Every structure is written in structure tokens, then in C-alpha cells.
TrEMBL record, chain A:
This is Large ribosomal subunit protein bL35m. Pfam families: Ribosomal_L35p (PF01632). Transmembrane segments: none annotated. The lineage of its organism: Eukaryota, Metazoa, Ecdysozoa, Nematoda, Chromadorea. PANTHER family: 39S RIBOSOMAL PROTEIN L35, MITOCHONDRIAL, LARGE RIBOSOMAL SUBUNIT PROTEIN BL35M.
TrEMBL record, chain B:
Transmembrane segments: none annotated. It holds the Pfam family PBP. Belongs to the phosphatidylethanolamine-binding protein family. Mitochondrion-specific ribosomal protein mL38 subfamily. SUPFAM superfamilies: PEBP-like. GO terms for cellular component: mitochondrial large ribosomal subunit. It comes from Caenorhabditis auriculariae. CDD domains: PEBP_euk (cd00866). This is Large ribosomal subunit protein mL38. Its main location: mitochondrion. The lineage of its organism: Eukaryota, Metazoa, Ecdysozoa, Nematoda, Chromadorea. Keywords: Coiled coil, Mitochondrion, Ribonucleoprotein, Ribosomal protein, Transit peptide. InterPro entries: PEBP, PEBP-like_sf, PEBP_euk.
Length: 155, 412
């Protein structure tokens, strides 16, 4: 009796795939959800689980499929598959939309291993968005570029 | 073909009511079994393009292997005969000491046999005159007296710093050379000797020349060195940090009359010691004749720093300036996925990255005498499971920029 139940359980697990792949996204997660109670959109928990947002607006993710059939892949792949990778601008924009403003705010934690990567260096693209807000940096008192570059490392 | 082209080419009378589709592609874009690559120009074989009216197919010969005989017309005899510039002996002739007894045939055979069996031992200490080949290899003569010059050691010169005897190019620690060496000069009759100690590689100044570390003139023959006039006081050789081994030569000159060297030599400042030996020699050529030479090598040591500090100078640190690594222009959002930590580190200030490593080092150990643990990461299994790979690499990797964790220039 007990054996039978175990067998049936195994069978059912084989038929219903528990892995959520690109082909197997449940309908209720296929769009931005709206929370009736709060009265605004709900952050996509999948995006928050799988991606990390750095304070400078860059989203990073693990290499997809890094655990699949590792034994049959070459040495370089074994190494590079462990990297955390950057997302493209398009992906970053989508992910920003999937989350709420709370997750877009810069976060500061003690002993943050990502501390060094929250600011970008050596970039010449505009630092300020259309609303005149600093995009990649924290807000500063000193606003003119030459002074802030002299006194602050991040830019 | 567009409608306008059709209208231009075909009179109205003959035009069809609808635009005929004559612009259809002339070949299928893909073949099911071969894919689109079947129609690409062949990249894998060299395309055979040559003017087909020619009778012979042009043959391609790789240029690399062509040896043009016109450039190698000289025979081996001619090559061997031409020895380039003739070298000039600026010293004395070697006195020919006739061998006491001609070796017999048996003795010669025996010698040959021993040497063939690699059993012929030559006591280096007993060989009197140094091998000129070593001096030529180290370019001692060339850098002291100019190109294509040499001289034989005809006067025995024994120099030793305590237990460290100076031979031909042996390495002596800088700390052992802090005191002037004991010098024994062979006596060869009525004349005067002048001893000069020169560091060939130790000139840090813009001025050309070598550093004279000791200069004693007019040493009467057969007398100790202190009987001479010390023109430049002894200063230990100063091989600066990062400059590798320095050649320090001790040169013995012989002259009949007491002399005073023509350019005014003084040793007030370190810079005053830099002189071109070739120039000094050229000016006093008529009086001076080099008769003996020895040289040794030294490298940086703590004593060099101490000596420089005692002179009121700072110890300079030399290091090789590498070219900066090439890197692509940074994109705010790279098109292809990049390892985020490596990509962002590439554009960070390298000093800041180094600081990070030193900070990590200071957490576990003191700046000096870092105790390198036997295991790179004692908690490897646990960390491997829990930490992301780029964080774990920071812990256990000791290569690249993580090298500074165990190996830091502050150590030495």
C-alpha cells in the first residue's frame, strides 16, 4: 500500500514539471500583477529572486543553465559559467518596470560585498537624467562636476 | 524590379494590369539539407583565381623559406677570417714565462684522457691571471675604456672584503662591503700604483659616467694601500633597490712618477663621484697604464639604504614601468553579458583595488611577515557551496591582483 503511494507520487512528479522555464511560465506571472489591497503594482518576485540590482542601475544575474550537464562541458565553460553577468539596457529597463520604486532606491548594507560595484568609474555618458537627477550616484551637496570629482571617488 | 522601372522599360500598350513579380530571388535562400551556408563564398579553401590563358599555373612559394644566395655570397673561410674591429691592448704586454719542461707524449696523452673523462680539475684559486673572456662577456673593458679595448692583468691584485674574496664577477653582499677591502698589490720594482674602485651601473644622475667609489693614487710599489694619497674616500657600492646586480670593478694603474689626476676629483657629494673613466684615462693616458683588474657584483641590501641615509640622501626605488593593459571602451550597459565584477574592475582605479587587497591582508596579519597559511581557504567546502564564485575567488585566489595578499613589495 505504502509502496504504491510512493510510486504514484513519483509518477505524478514526473509528469508535472516543477521547473519554471521560458516555456513554462504560469499565466498569473506572465504580466505585471496589480495588488488590490495596496492599490498599486506588486514587484515580480521571480525577478527579485533571480536578479540583483546594483545601486548604479545595473542588474546582474547568474549564468542560465550553469548547473546543467556540467561534466560534458569544457574547462573554460566550467569557470565562466560561475560568473555573475550583466544585463543589457533593455533587460535592465524591463526589470526596473517589474519591480516597485522601493527596489530602485539605492540600498546600503554593512559589509556589503557589492560595495565597490555600486558606483561606476571612467564613464562619460550623462550623469543626470531628464529630471536632472543623478542617475548612477548618490545625491550630493556639491553639484558642479569638477568639484565633485576632486572630492568624491564615485562618478 | 520596381513599378517605376517596369513603366520605364515596357510601353504602356504591353504592360500587364498588375506588376509582374520579376524581382523574385534567383536562388533559394537555404537548402533544407545544407542550410544557408551552402551559398556563402567558400572560406575554407583558397579560391583559385589566376589568369586562365596562361599555360602554367602560377606557383606560390612561401617567402619565409627563401634564402637569397646573393646575400650570402661570402664563404665560410671569409666569414671566419673577418673578425670585425681589431681590439687594442691598452695595457702591458704579457711576459712570456717559458714552461719549466716540455710535457712528454705520455703525459699529454694522460692529460687528454683525464679531461675526456671529466676528471681534470683546475684549482681556480691557483690560476694567476683572470680569464679575459669573463670580462669581455660582462663588457667591463667596453664600458670602462670604450669599445675594442682590453688589457692583460700583469700585476697580481688580491682584494678581499673580510672573508669575501674578489675574483672575476663573483657576487658579494652589499652589507659585507661596508668597510674598505684589504688589498695586496704585487711588487714589481720601482714605480707607483693607483687603485680605483668603480661601480659601472650605479650612476643615477643625468650626467654620463660611472661612480668612483674609491680612488687611491701614488701607492709606492710594495707598500700597503694606505701609504698612497686617498683622493676619494671609500664609499660602499650603492646598488639601488630594483636595479639588480651592479658590476663593481677594481682597476690597478701603474705609473713611473707620482701623479695628480688632471680633472679635479673630490668626493663632497655623491654626484661628484660620477665620472667617465674613459675620459679620465684619455687625459692621463701618457702617464697611466692599466696593469690589473678584478670585479665583483652586488645587489640591493638594507645596508645601501643605511649608507644613503647617512649621506643625507633618500634611497630611491626603481621599478619597471609596464604598459597599461589594453581595454575596450566602457559601455554603460554592455551589449553582451559580461562578468560584472571583472568588467567593472577593469575601469576602476587600480590603486583602489590594491587597497582592497591590502586591507584584507591587514585584517588577518601584520604588514610585515605575513603568515601564509598552508591552505588557501580552510573553509573551502562550506564557502564553495554558500558563496558566489566571484566572492569565493577573492578568498582563495592568489593570482592576478590577489597576489598582493601574500606577496607585497613592502616585504623586501
Amino acid at each position: 500500500m505504502l509502496k504504491n503511494s510512493v510510486l504514484t507520487a513519483l509518477k505524478s512528479s514526473q509528469t508535472v514539471s516543477t521547473f519554471r522555464t521560458i516555456a513554462n511560465i504560469p499565466a498569473h506571472e506572465h504580466h505585471i500583477r496589480f495588488d488590490m489591497k495596496v492599490g498599486r503594482k506588486r514587484p515580480c518576485s521571480d525577478a527579485l529572486d533571480r536578479f540583483k540590482r546594483l545601486n548604479n542601475g545595473m542588474w546582474i544575474r547568474a549564468h542560465p543553465g550553469r548547473n546543467k550537464l556540467r561534466y560534458m562541458k569544457d574547462d573554460v565553460w566550467q569557470r565562466t559559467s560561475t560568473y555573475f553577468e550583466t544585463c543589457t539596457q533593455e533587460e535592465c529597463r524591463i526589470l526596473d518596470k517589474l519591480t516597485t520604486p522601493y527596489w530602485l532606491r539605492p540600498k546600503h548594507y554593512p559589509n556589503d560585498p557589492y560595495q565597490a560595484y555600486h558606483v561606476r568609474h571612467d564613464l562619460s555618458s550623462p550623469r543626470v537624467d531628464d529630471r536632472n537627477q543623478l542617475v548612477r550616484e548618490r545625491k550630493k551637496v556639491l553639484l558642479d562636476d569638477t568639484t565633485s570629482q576632486r572630492h568624491f571617488r564615485d562618478c | 524590379m520596381s513599378a517605376a522601372q517596369y513603366a520605364r522599360l515596357v510601353p504602356k500598350k504591353y504592360r500587364s494590369r498588375t506588376l509582374p513579380k520579376i524581382d523574385r530571388p534567383w536562388r533559394p535562400r537555404i537548402v533544407a539539407w545544407a542550410g544557408p551556408a551552402a551559398f556563402y563564398p567558400n572560406r575554407f579553401y583558397e579560391i583559385d583565381k589566376w589568369y586562365k590563358a596562361r599555360i602554367d599555373k602560377p606557383q606560390k612559394v612561401q617567402k619565409m623559406h627563401i634564402i637569397d644566395p646573393a646575400e650570402h655570397s661570402r664563404s665560410l673561410d671569409e666569414l671566419l677570417a673577418n673578425k670585425g674591429v681589431e681590439e687594442i691592448n691598452i695595457g702591458f704586454k704579457v711576459m712570456k714565462v717559458s714552461e719549466a719542461r716540455e710535457k712528454s707524449v705520455d703525459e699529454k696523452k694522460n692529460l687528454e684522457r683525464i679531461s675526456r673523462h671529466m676528471e681534470l680539475l683546475i684549482n681556480v684559486d691557483e690560476t694567476k691571471n683572470p680569464n679575459l673572456g669573463v670580462y669581455k662577456h660582462f663588457k667591463i673593458f667596453e664600458h670602462l675604456f670604450g669599445e675594442a679595448t682590453f688589457f692583460h692583468t700583469v700585476q697580481q691584485l688580491d682584494v678581499s672584503f673580510g672573508e669575501d674574496v674578489v675574483f672575476s664577477g663573483n657576487v658579494i653582499e652589499a652589507a659585507n662591503t661596508s668597510a674598505p677591502p684589504s688589498v695586496v698589490i704585487e711588487s714589481l720594482g720601482n714605480a707607483f700604483n693607483t687603485l680605483m674602485m668603480v661601480n659601472l651601473d650605479g650612476n643615477p644622475y643625468e650626467k654620463k659616467g660611472e661612480m668612483i667609489h674609491w680612488l687611491v693614487t701614488n701607492i709606492p710599489d710594495g707598500q700597503p694601500v694606505h701609504k698612497g694619497a686617498e683622493v676619494m674616500k671609500y664609499l660602499q657600492p650603492l646598488p639601488f633597490y630594483g636595479t639588480g646586480y651592479h658590476r663593481v670593478a677594481l682597476i690597478l694603474f701603474r705609473h713611473d712618477e707620482p701623479i695628480s689626476l688632471t680633472p679635479n676629483l673630490n668626493d663632497e657629494k655623491l654626484e661628484d663621484r660620477a665620472h667617465e673613466i674613459a675620459k679620465i684615462y684619455k687625459e692621463n693616458e701618457k702617464v697611466l697604464t692599466p696593469s690589473g683588474i678584478k670585479f665583483f657584483q652586488t645587489s640591493y641590501d638594507d645596508s645601501v639604504k643605511q649608507t644613503l641615509h647617512s649621506l643625507g640622501l633618500k634611497s630611491p626605488l626603481y621599478s619597471y614601468e609596464y604598459n597599461e593593459a589594453l581595454k575596450p571602451d566602457q559601455r554603460e550597459f554592455p551589449e553582451r553579458p559580461q562578468p560584472f565584477n571583472l568588467y567593472l574592475d577593469m575601469y576602476r582605479d587600480p590603486k583602489e583595488i590594491e587597497e582592497e587587497v591590502v586591507e584584507k591582508r591587514l585584517e588577518t596579519a601584520q604588514l610585515e611577515q605575513v603568515q601564509v597559511s598552508k591552505w588557501r581557504d580552510p573553509n573551502y567546502v562550506e564557502n564553495k557551496k554558500t558563496l558566489p564564485a566571484w566572492q569565493h575567488e577573492k578568498i582563495y585566489s592568489r593570482e592576478g591582483r590577489h597576489k598582493a595578499y601574500i606577496r607585497n613589495p613592502i616585504d623586501s
